[in-house]
Amino acid sequence: MKAYELLYFVDPSSSEEIRAGVMKRIDVAITTDGGVVDNVEDWGKRKLAFEIDKLTEGDYTLINFHADPTQIAELDRVLRINDAVKRHMIVRRVDKD
Predict the structure, then answer these.
(1) Phi/psi at 76 (nearest 5 deg)?
(2) What is the spatial distance between Cα 4 and Cα 91, in angstroms, rounded to a whole number?
(3) DSSP character string of 10-64
(4) How high is the pLDDT of residue 33?
(5) Cβ-count burial of 38 within 10 angstroms (0-12 exposed, 13-18 middle, 19+ buried)?
(6) What is the pLDDT of residue 96?
(7) Which residues are paired to 13 by β-bridges?
(8) 3-class DSSP state for residue 73?
(9) Given this model, what pLDDT does residue 43 score?
């Protein structure tokens, strides 16, 4: 398994139910085939560099995890079809392998 980092943000006016649902769906996508979530950091509201979908702020979350490279495509698909997630980025962490 390889180390990855996922950073995503949702609309800051989203309810806690929506944020918990997004987190649960990400957790299921990572752990289904044996992946492991190492750390979850809630960064809170941050100002965006430019406006995205008429938003000037985003509620950011950073997740460090280990997974097989084949799982990354499924996780990316899950994040793309989720309307609550405005933007996301998955990066391989070679320093954490």
Answers:
(1) -60, -40
(2) 6
(3) E-TT--HHHHHHHHHHHHHHHHTTT-EEEEEEEEEEEEEEEEETTEEEEEEEEEE
(4) 85
(5) middle
(6) 76
(7) none
(8) helix
(9) 94
Lookup: tokens for 30:
């990572």
Please list the ranges in the chain whose pLDDT falls under 50.
Answer: none
What pLDDT, on a 0 to 100 scale, did the predictor assign at position 97?
73
Question: Which token pair is 70?
Answer: 């084949």
List the structure tokens of 80.
């793309």
pLDDT at 6: 96
Q: Which amino acid is at 41?
A: E
Token digits of residue 47? 């100002």
Query: What does the CA dihedral 82, 12, 14, 33 come to, rounded to 10 degrees?
Result: 40
Alpha carbons 83 and 97: distance in angstroms, whole number = 31
CA 15/CA 58 separation, integer angstroms: 13
